[in-house]
Design brief:
By secondary structure, this protein is α+β, with helices and mostly antiparallel strands. The chain is built from three helices and three strands; from the N terminus they run ααβαββ. Strands 1-3-2 form a three-stranded antiparallel beta sheet.
Length: about 100
């Protein structure tokens, strides 16, 4: 099953992600939101299968601004770079990813 694919060690486990590829992401999101200082930024690379819109909604619910910084298709994978920012603090300069 999906949970068992994450047992063990080595390179094979690095490709395992559990349900929707979100096993680690869902643990990381609240921790990242908690650690961000006012004005702080956090970027996350994910696949379409990870449901990026839902990830952004989770982070908005944790008080962060959320947007898609970049979307790109590589082979069969639809990749997203998600940008999250804690409001407040000094105004962060806009970061453009080429």
């Amino acid at each position: 099953g999906e949970k068992e694919e994450m047992d063990g060690c080595g390179i094979s486990v690095s490709w395992a992600g559990g349900d929707r590829g979100r096993e680690v992401i869902d643990v990381l999101l609240p921790k990242a939101a908690e650690l961000l200082a006012p004005g702080g930024l956090f970027y996350l690379v994910c696949l379409a299968e990870n449901e990026p819109e839902e990830i952004m909604e989770v982070m908005r619910g944790l008080g962060l601004k959320a947007s898609v910084a970049k979307r790109e298709t590589r082979g069969m994978e639809d990749l997203f770079i998600l940008r999250f920012q804690r409001p407040g603090g000094p105004a962060a300069a806009a970061v453009r990813i080429p």
